[in-house]
């Protein structure tokens, strides 16, 4: 077993349990301060209740019913394997993890529907409330909700019970780098609740469930698709949605549209978002009632769409107060392929300009929380470190972060390539190796689940301007139908680019030709007339630093491993000299250095796993990277 599973006895409370190493932010975590922030910055309502904190837990076999007695306390939202959970036990594939908590609904919520939200639960779960089965969910990285109104008591405590199973690497489900026996590049499993749990009230008559924001820079407008939790009849002419774009305290644009129609907000002289100037507009979306804009006009004479309908509602008179209001933000930014300094070789364009994308492979793991970051402050530290070091991008590797991570990236200004978490049986099979021409076969059910979770990821993260690229497959990990999936993602989201497969087996699909090159001197990708050429992984310089290792007894490795600061810096300079050469002479569009931090036995981070040691000074990194941001003539 990894050393993280051999900690303090089960009776130790979460606040005193220690990991082999911990970041400074993880050391501050208590049951009273664990993730208090609002979890959904893109769809904010003023009333909500945070359910993070201590829950009861028990682990049983899958064949028995819910327990009547529980083993102890678990700190939500940290997974059961993590030190911060206070449990630090593995959940085996044949077992079930049970959670229990008693909640009371605020009296001021009476007369409204109550939604219970889970940020993420890995992997399959079912929820009971006061003994009634509310529903189930499958998927380890996506948020989900239940309407629990009809299960609630009119007064007093309500008993929530959640049962969770996780096949980990014995199943084919998307899970990224989690395996039951961690080694090398494969890490500790994550099971159960690992993101915020919370409740909110919504109007009984109807509420806004989704607001989809698409910047159209070429037309200087914002496309808005605001959707209710259930459809409204076409014959309902008085239900409408008002959308307002705001710059500081100034209204930039506002319009009213019929429910079910697309709105377009003109954004005159838009302030474009970029890593140098990450400007964000605020947006408010309201469910309103209007006077029928067509009066006594016969129904068969009324327009059902098009300009006439849009104009009528834009002029409609809003009556009363909105029944539902959500706030969020958006940015005006454009990502595309276009001509670059080398004739015939397309490059990555940001707002119609060639901007080299320089970033690290970012795994998002933490020594005491595993997949769960400890706090906003911790995430901001990492992103700010990358910005100050001369990175303008990161590749979020085989993990989907909590929404607040992307909010901080939007706010601070860093481009993100978002990987889809890989899914395959284990790390020794269904793993298509480099140079293999034929993709492996996958079971239909496994493909359906992968594509469902891929779709959910894109839908959930759609509004974040920092995300500019979707990465469908990493290397050969569970790869299948790559050309079809790349085309599918391009149709799902035409506003972004698609990296069909990062490294190994290029199938000619997507917007990128992406190679991985871990040699001491990175190789150059060959030219491609219809796609940008990028190095999706390189580097991997290892430096194990005593006192900052996850487990000193295990193999602590890098692709090249050194023992002092000078040789590490020299090796880094040597690698980046080739990246700069390829940028200048071959129109290389991007490079991804492995990696932001050490992770468990991997010690090739720019930071140690506890984030306490910066291995190459920030000013040195910034100076090394500077030539990548000078225009190539």
UniProtKB/TrEMBL annotation:
InterPro entries: Beta-gal/glucu_dom_sf, Galactose-bd-like_sf, GH, GH2_Domain-Containing, Glyco_hydro_2_cat, Glyco_hydro_2_N, Ig-like_fold, Ig-like_GH2. GO terms for molecular function: hydrolase activity, hydrolyzing O-glycosyl compounds. Residues 207-287 form the Glycoside hydrolase family 2 immunoglobulin-like beta-sandwich domain. Residues 96-168 form the Glycosyl hydrolases family 2 sugar binding domain. The keyword Hydrolase applies. One of its GO terms (biological process) is carbohydrate metabolic process. SUPFAM superfamilies: (Trans)glycosidases, beta-Galactosidase/glucuronidase domain, Galactose-binding domain-like. The keyword Hydrolase applies. Coiled coil: none annotated. Residues 377-505 form the Glycoside hydrolase family 2 catalytic domain. Keywords: Glycosidase, Hydrolase. Belongs to the glycosyl hydrolase 2 family. This is Glycoside hydrolase family 2. It comes from Hymenobacter aerilatus.
């Amino acid at each position: 077993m990894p050393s993280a599973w051999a900690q303090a006895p089960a009776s130790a409370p979460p606040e005193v349990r220690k990991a082999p190493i911990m970041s400074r932010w993880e050391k501050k975590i208590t049951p009273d301060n664990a993730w208090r922030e609002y979890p959904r910055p893109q769809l904010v309502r003023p009333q909500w209740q945070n359910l993070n904190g201590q829950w009861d837990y028990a682990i049983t076999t899958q064949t028995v019913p819910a327990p009547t007695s529980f083993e102890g306390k678990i700190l939500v939202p940290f997974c059961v394997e993590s030190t911060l959970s206070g449990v630090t036990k593995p959940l085996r594939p044949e077992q079930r993890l049970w959670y229990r908590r008693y909640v009371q609904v605020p009296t001021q919520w009476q007369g409204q529907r109550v939604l219970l939200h889970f940020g993420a639960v890995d992997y399959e779960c079912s929820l009971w409330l006061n003994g009634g089965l509310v529903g189930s969910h499958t998927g380890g990285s996506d948020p989900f909700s239940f309407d629990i109104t009809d299960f609630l008591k009119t007064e007093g405590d309500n008993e929530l019970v959640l049962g969770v199973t996780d096949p980990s690497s014995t199943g084919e489900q998307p899970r990224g780098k989690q395996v039951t026996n961690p080694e090398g590049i494969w890490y500790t499993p994550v099971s159960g609740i690992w993101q915020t749990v919370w409740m909110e009230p919504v109007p009984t008559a109807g509420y806004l469930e989704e607001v989809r924001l698409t910047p159209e820079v070429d037309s200087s407008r914002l496309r808005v698709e605001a959707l209710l939790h259930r459809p409204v009849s076409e014959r309902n002419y008085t239900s409408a949605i008002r959308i307002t774009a705001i710059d500081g305290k100034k209204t930039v644009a506002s319009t009213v549209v019929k429910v079910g129609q697309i709105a377009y907000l003109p954004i005159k002289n838009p302030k474009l978002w970029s890593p140098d100037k990450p400007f964000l507009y605020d947006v408010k979306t309201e469910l309103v009632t209007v006077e029928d804009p067509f009066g006594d006009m016969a129904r068969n004479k009324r327009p059902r769409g098009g300009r006439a309908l849009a104009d009528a509602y834009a002029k409609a008179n809003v009556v009363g107060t909105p029944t539902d209001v959500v706030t969020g933000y958006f940015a005006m930014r454009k990502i595309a392929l276009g001509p670059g300094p080398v004739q015939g070789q397309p490059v990555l364009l940001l707002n119609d300009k060639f901007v080299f994308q320089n970033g690290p492979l970012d795994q998002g793991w933490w020594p005491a929380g595993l997949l769960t970051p400890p706090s906003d402050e911790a995430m901001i530290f990492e992103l700010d470190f990358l910005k100050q070091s001369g990175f303008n991008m990161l590749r979020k590797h085989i993990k989907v972060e909590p929404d607040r991570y992307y909010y901080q990236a939007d706010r601070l200004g860093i481009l993100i390539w978002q990987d889809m978490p890989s899914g395959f049986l284990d790390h020794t099979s269904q793993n298509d190796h480099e140079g293999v021409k034929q993709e492996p076969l996958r079971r239909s059910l496994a493909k359906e689940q992968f594509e469902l979770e891929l779709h959910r990821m894109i839908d959930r993260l759609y509004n974040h301007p920092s995300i500019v690229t979707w990465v469908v497959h990493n290397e050969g990990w569970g790869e299948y139908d790559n050309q079809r999936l790349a085309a599918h993602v391009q149709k799902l989201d035409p506003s972004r680019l698609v990296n069909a497969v990062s490294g190994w087996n290029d199938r000619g699909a997507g917007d990128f030709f992406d190679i991985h090159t871990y040699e001491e001197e990175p190789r150059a990708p060959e030219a491609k007339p219809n796609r940008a050429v990028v190095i999706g992984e390189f580097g991997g310089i290892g430096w194990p630093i005593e006192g900052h290792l996850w487990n000193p007894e295990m193999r602590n490795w890098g692709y090249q491993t050194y023992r002092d600061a000078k040789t590490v810096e020299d090796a880094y300079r040597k690698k980046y000299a080739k990246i700069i050469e390829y940028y200048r002479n071959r129109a290389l569009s991007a490079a991804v250095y492995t990696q932001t931090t050490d992770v468990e036995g991997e010690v090739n981070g720019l930071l140690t796993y506890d984030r306490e040691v910066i291995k190459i000074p920030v000013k040195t990194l910034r100076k090394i990277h500077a030539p990548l941001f000078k225009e190539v003539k």
